[in-house]
Amino acid sequence: MQGARFVETLELVVCAIGVAYGSLLLYGIKQKWRWITDPPEWTSVIYFPTVVKMVWGPKHVRSFALITAYGSLAMSLVCLTQSFIGSL
Fold this sequence. Notes:
By secondary structure, this protein is mostly helical. It has one domain. It is built from 4 helices and no strands. The protein is elongated and about 50 Å long. 14% of the residues are buried. The model has no long low-confidence stretch (mean pLDDT 90).
């Protein structure tokens, strides 16, 4: 069925975006991009790491970003594995 094939493709794309996001976040942490490691306070309404910075301090922003990056990578890789196994 064509609808099932579309859903499988969409699932692969979403999982691949998660892997790309986690990888980009890890790269940004390694390069010490300021918007990741020390976000400006005016972005607190739209950017959650700023709230982490305001509540727990700037040292915890990096830890939160690492948890987010590794979590995104892990969940997306599990998603990709499940998609590939399910398509067999």
